[in-house]
Design a protein that fits this description.
Length: 364
């Protein structure tokens, strides 16, 4: 091989070696950069997963329900939305065409609002639900208290206005009956006097119902009073084909008037028996602890009540019974209010009713 060609070949091998070394070096740098990028991607993915988990924790910790939907399917629902049964709401909302409003689902009240997601996600939208059931119940209790107070005051004023002339009528009738009258005339006066005394007795009862209750507070176990009252009412229930069940899970002592609380329980049990006329069902009485209250829940599977009826049952002189006076639940309500407690009612027509009586565990 000529010297010139050998020299060219040697130079070519040297250049090739240099190029190979450069490629190896570049590959090492590239490999190092790829490892760095991979590490950074893994770190970013870890951060994204943490951020995603943090976001999910935030969404699941919210006191409202959050749902993302494409109007056909639920894409995401936080924990609160799942507990509220959001899928049942969506069918109602998809047909209403509104952006916000209120709705009722069973015994719950909810407020909702929705907005379209504006990041190129098509027709996806986010819907927020808020459970305002307790707020609505508190508002109803406040309105009921104000209404009953006004009605009680009005009834008391009317009773006083009627009672004054009745006293004069009774006095004059007593004077007439002692006068020289025919026997038949005296008999008529006796009838009138009896009617006046009857009206006076009714008015006195009304005044006693409307005035504040004086409590004889005693520290004792509420469970004992509940079981004692149910034992007393069991014979009446069994004679109508109705059984009584009790579940007393609260055994601590509380401050209450045992005689008045017995009257309250008897009234509700009696009403439940009447509501189950012709139904061989069960009245369940549950005693449990609810925060600072002891709760007595009396449930039946009777005829239930409409919403309108539920709003009026505690009003004085409101009754659905042929021979009722309409003061039983009004008295019961005032007794529990005097204890510093309150009453909640849940009912569905044809499915029964449930009354929850909340009594403070400590002295009011």
């Amino acid at each position: 091989m000529p010297a010139v060609q050998a020299k060219l070949l040697e130079n070519a091998f040297q250049e090739f070696a240099k190029a190979s070394d450069s490629i190896i070096n570049y590959y090492g740098v590239l490999e190092s950069q790829i490892r760095q990028l991979k590490k950074e991607v893994e770190e970013k993915n870890t951060e994204l997963e943490k951020a995603r988990g943090y976001l999910y924790n935030i969404l699941n910790s919210l006191p409202v329900g959050v749902v993302v939907t494409n109007k056909t399917n639920v894409i995401f629902a936080n924990k609160n939305a799942e507990e509220l049964g959001s899928e049942g709401f969506l069918e109602k909302l998809n047909n209403c065409g509104q952006k916000f409003g209120e709705l009722k689902n069973g015994t719950g009240h909810y407020r909702w609002k929705r907005e379209r997601i504006v990041n190129g996600s098509g027709s996806n939208e986010v819907i927020v639900f808020e459970d305002v059931t307790e707020f609505e119940r508190m508002k109803d209790r406040l309105e009921r208290d104000e209404r009953l107070m006004a009605m009680g005051e009005m009834a008391a004023r009317m009773a006083h206005e009627i009672k004054n002339p009745l006293g004069s009528m009774e006095l004059f009738l007593s004077m007439l009956i002692n006068a020289k009258l025919r026997r038949q005339d005296k008999k008529y006066i006796d009838y009138v006097l009896f009617g006046v005394k009857t009206i006076d007795r009714i008015i006195n009862n009304l005044l006693s119902y409307t005035k504040p209750k004086t409590l004889a507070l005693t520290e004792m176990r509420l469970s004992h009073v509940v079981k004692e009252t149910l034992d007393f009412m069991s014979l009446s229930a069994q004679s109508r084909g109705i059984s009584l069940e009790v579940d007393a899970r609260f055994g601590d002592t509380s401050f209450f008037d045992p005689d008045l609380i017995k009257l309250v329980i008897m009234n509700f049990i009696s009403n439940a028996i009447d509501a189950m006329e012709g139904i061989n069902g069960t009245i369940k009485v549950e005693l449990k602890e609810e925060g600072k209250y002891a709760a007595i829940v009396i449930s039946d599977n009777g005829i239930g009540m409409s919403e309108e009826l539920q709003k009026n049952i505690f009003n004085p002189f409101f009754t659905t019974k042929d021979k009722g006076v309409g003061l039983g639940l009004y008295i019961v309500y005032n007794i529990i209010k005097a204890h510093g407690g309150y009453i909640e009612v849940e009912s569905v027509e044809g499915s029964g009713s449930s009354f929850s009586i909340y009594i403070p565990k400590d002295s009011p």
